[in-house]
């Protein structure tokens, strides 16, 4: 599925997610929803750098597949798989399990297209 369509479906089925972006391994923005283009690039790059940075701290050189950061006013979630990553920004008191599930399904839909 095309990234734009998968992201539109994501925010429709997951009301906790306010904005999301898909990013390639090289940091290139694949698609976004709910965030202006310049901010989407920043969000995508930050998610990729955070996932890669967290992986650098692993002694087994494994990859980090998901992250969750609680912020004032909402949360940020990131999921990585098959060379792509998705980042989602949520409202306060989001349910992490549901958000991760929805992000993984969206990313799988995009991955199946590429």
Structural key phrases:
114 residues
Residue share in β-strands: 25-35%
Low-pLDDT sequence parts? none
- The best one-word shape is globular
Number of strands: 5
User: Could you say which structural class the secondary elements and strand pairing correspond to?
Assistant: alpha+beta
Lateral arrangement of strands in the main beta sheet: 2-1-5-4-3
The SSE string, one letter per element, is: HEEHEEEH
Percent of residues in helices? 40-55%
Distance between the termini: 8 Å
Determine the number of helices (DSSP H or I, runs of at least 4 residues).
3
Instruction: Please summarize the sheet with the most strands.
Output: 5 strands, antiparallel
> Roughly how many Å is the radius of gyration?
13 Å
Name the assembly state. Answer: single chain
Tell me, rounded to a whole number, the average pLDDT: 90
Task: Give the structure's gist in a few sentences.
The chain has three helices and five strands; from the N terminus they run H-E-E-H-E-E-E-H. It has 114 residues and is an alpha+beta fold.
Structure description:
The protein is an alpha+beta fold. It is built from 3 helices and 5 strands. It has a 5-stranded antiparallel sheet with strand order 2-1-5-4-3, sandwiched between helices. It starts with a helix and ends with a helix. The relative contact order is 0.22.
């Amino acid at each position: 599925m095309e990234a734009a369509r998968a992201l539109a479906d994501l925010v429709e089925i997951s009301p906790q997610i306010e904005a999301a972006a898909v990013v390639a391994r090289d940091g290139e923005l694949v698609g976004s929803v709910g965030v202006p283009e310049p901010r989407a690039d920043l969000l995508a790059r930050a998610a990729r750098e955070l996932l890669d940075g967290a992986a650098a701290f692993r002694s087994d050189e494994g990859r980090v597949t998901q992250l969750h950061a609680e912020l004032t006013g909402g949360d940020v979630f990131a999921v990585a798989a098959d060379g792509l990553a998705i980042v989602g920004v949520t409202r306060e008191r989001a349910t992490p399990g549901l958000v991760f599930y929805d992000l993984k399904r969206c990313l799988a839909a995009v991955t199946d297209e590429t």
